[in-house]
Design brief:
The protein is α+β, with helices and mostly antiparallel strands. The chain has two domains: about 70 residues, no CATH class; about 220 residues, Fumarylacetoacetase-like, C-terminal domain (Fumarylacetoacetate hydrolase, domain 2), CATH 3.90.850. Helix content is about 15%, strand content about 30%. It has five helices and 19 strands. The radius of gyration is 19 Å and the shape is globular.
C-alpha cells in the first residue's frame, strides 16, 4: 500500500495514478493533529489495514498530479541517518565503522517543496540520495535476526548538508539539521510491496542530469544491522525514520533554481526545488568527476557571497 498526505493534510492511498481519500477510515484514531496521524496509524496498522483497503477499493480517486502532496510523515519523533554506509562501488577496502547521526524532525519537507540554502559561509551545499525505512513498532535492543519485523515501510529521503561550516569541531549538527534539509516522499510504501530492499536502484537528477545512480546492494552495514545498532542506543518509535546512507561519489552542489528529483525503485519520484537568496554558484561537477580528473576535495564556490577571493 502507498500512503500519502495531501492538500489540507488528508490521508490518501495511491491507486495507480490516482489518490483515494481514506481519511474517514481512520477518523477514530486519537491524534493531536495531522503531524501525528500517520505515526498513530502506523502503530495500529494491523487494525486499520482492512478498513483502508476497503475505502481505497470503493473510493473515487482523483489524479495525483492535481494534488498538493505533503510529507507523508510530517513529525516523526526521531530521524536517524546512517553515516558512510556504502562501499562506494567497491572503492572502499572495508566498511567504515558503523555510525549515525540525528537529524531534527523539524527539517522535513515534502514533494514539490523547496530546500532553502541558509545564508551562512559553507564550502558548498549537497543533498544525498537515500532510501529510508520507517519503523512500525517500538524497537528497543532489537537483535538483527528479528529486525526486519520492525520495518513498516520505505520512502525516498534527501539528506541535505552544508559542508565546511565552522568551527569544524562543532560542524556536524549545524551541517545536517538546517530547516528544509530533510525532503521525504512523495509517499510511504509498506514493506510488503518491496520484495528485496537490498536490490533497489537509487537515482538522483539535478535539472534533468543524473548525478547519483547506485544500488542498495552496495550497503556496507545492512538494514537489520542498522536497526540492531540504533535500537541498542535508544528506542525507536512507530513512524520514526532511519535513512540508510548513500554512495557519495555522485554528489554535486545544490544551488539556486535547481530542480532535484530522487527515485528509488518502487518508491515513486520525489521532486523538490532549491532556493538560495544569495545566488551563489559552484561548478556542476560531481565528486566522482573531480576524482577522475585527479582533483581533491569538493568543487570550490565560484561566485557570490563567501566565495574565496
Amino acid at each position: 500500500m502507498k500512503l500519502l498526505m495531501f492538500n489540507d493534510w488528508r490521508l490518501g492511498v495511491l491507486r495507480g495514478d490516482n489518490v483515494v481519500d481514506v481519511t474517514a477510515a481512520v477518523q477514530t484514531i486519537p491524534h493531536a493533529g495531522p503531524g501525528d496521524l500517520m505515526n498513530r496509524l502506523i502503530e495500529r496498522f494491523a487494525e486499520f489495514r482492512a478498513p483502508l483497503e476497503r475505502a481505497a477499493a470503493i473510493g473515487k480517486g482523483l489524479p495525483v498530479s492535481q494534488m498538493k502532496i505533503r510529507p507523508p510523515l510530517p513529525r516523526p519523533i526521531n530521524i536517524e541517518c546512517m553515516a558512510v554506509n556504502y562501499m562506494e562501488d567497491g572503492t572502499r577496502k572495508a566498511p567504515a565503522p558503523i555510525n549515525a547521526f540525528h537529524k531534527s524532525p523539524g527539517c522535513i519537507i515534502g514533494h514539490g517543496d523547496t530546500m532553502v540554502l541558509p545564508e551562512i559561509p559553507a564550502t558548498l551545499f549537497e543533498g544525498e540520495a537515500e532510501m529510508a525505512l520507517v519503523i512500525g513498532k517500538r524497537a528497543s535492543s532489537v537483535p538483527a535476526a528479528k529486525a526486519m519485523e520492525y520495518v513498516f515501510g520505505y520512502l525516498n529521503f534527501i539528506d541535505g548538508s552544508a559542508r565546511g561550516v565552522q568551527p569544524a569541531a562543532q560542524s556536524f549538527y549545524q551541517m545536517k539539521s538546517r530547516a528544509t534539509f530533510a525532503p521525504i516522499g512523495p509517499w510511504l510504501v509498506t514493506a510488503d510491496e518491496i520484495r528485496d530492499p537490498l536490490k533497489l536502484q537509487v537515482r538522483l537528477w539535478v535539472n534533468g542530469v543524473i548525478k547519483q545512480n547506485y544500488n542498495t546492494g552496495d550497503m556496507a552495514h545492512k538494514i537489520a544491522r542498522c536497526i540492531e545498532w540504533i535500537s541498542s542506543i535508544h528506542d525507536l518509535e512507530p513512524g520514526d525514520i532511519l535513512a540508510l546512507g548513500t554512495n557519495h561519489r555522485g554528489l554535486s552542489a545544490f544551488q539556486d533554481g535547481d530542480r532535484v528529483e530522487l527515485e528509488t525503485e518502487g518508491l515513486g519520484r520525489l521532486a523538490i526545488t532549491v532556493r538560495d537568496d544569495l545566488k551563489r554558484t559552484w561548478s556542476r561537477e560531481a565528486r566522482l568527476e573531480r576524482e577522475q580528473r585527479g582533483l581533491d576535495g569538493t568543487t570550490p564556490q565560484l561566485t557570490g557571497k563567501y566565495a574565496p577571493s
